[in-house]
From TrEMBL:
Catalytic class of the enzyme: lyase
Gene that produces this protein: allA
Keywords per UniProt: Lyase, Purine metabolism
Pathway: Nitrogen metabolism; (S)-allantoin degradation
Name assigned to this protein: Ureidoglycolate lyase
A GO molecular-function descriptor: ureidoglycolate lyase activity
Example of a GO biological process term: allantoin catabolic process
UniProt EC number: 4.3.2.3
Keyword Ubl conjugation carried by entry: no
């Protein structure tokens, strides 16, 4: 079992896996007569293969328990996949670099702060959507089209939060204890 403590997500640490989507670290320009700031081109949408097209979807996810135990990571070889929280939901991000095999030493776990989204570049191994604390609603941009776009890789991983062991109680509220 690979044991990981999630680290706060940063663009630098996430760079091998894709982009962090966050207006606080992005440039913008004004449009609409100055009424709107356009945070432009924050992440690279990849749609590869036959009849490929970009999809916009919304995921409504139930919260995961922490420690989070995983028995696989997945990848989308034909496209990127972005998750943007719609109500400042925090979520766990577990990733490994693209490749045919996963080196356990290369797996990284992060926790977002509610203002961050992520875009997994095509082929990046990742855990499925893992929202914390409450039901989460995410805008998702990924690839539709022909052919397989989801591979799974068996690997056992246990992820904890920094310095806390949080457990789900019966009503899915989380108590954090030292
Ligand atoms: N299967 C699906 O659409 N979602 C996963 O790819 C995920 O990363 O949550
Ligand atoms: Ni995915």
């Amino acid at each position: 079992m690979l044991e990981l403590e999630a680290r706060p997500l940063t663009p630098e640490a996430f760079a091998p896996f894709g982009e962090v989507i966050d207006t606080r670290i992005a440039d913008y320009f004004h449009i609409n007569a100055g009424r709107t700031r356009r945070y432009h081109d924050l992440a690279r949408v990849e749609t590869l293969g036959e009849k490929a097209r970009a999809l916009i979807s919304i995921f409504v996810s139930q919260p995961v328990e922490v420690p989070l135990t995983l028995d696989f990571l997945e990848r989308h070889p034909q496209g990127s996949q972005a998750f943007v929280p719609m109500h400042e939901e925090r979520f766990l991000v577990v990733v490994a670099p693209p490749g045919e095999r996963i080196d356990p030493e290369s797996v990284r776990a992060f926790v977002t702060d509610g203002r961050q989204g992520v875009n997994y570049r095509a082929g990046t191994w990742h855990a499925i959507q893992s929202v914390l604390e409450r039901e989460g609603e995410f805008l998702v941009v990924d690839r539709g089209g022909e052919g397989n776009n989801c591979d799974e890789y068996p690997i056992d991983i246990r992820v904890t939060l920094p310095g806390h062991e949080a457990v789900a109680s019966s009503d899915t509220e989380f108590e954090e204890r030292q």
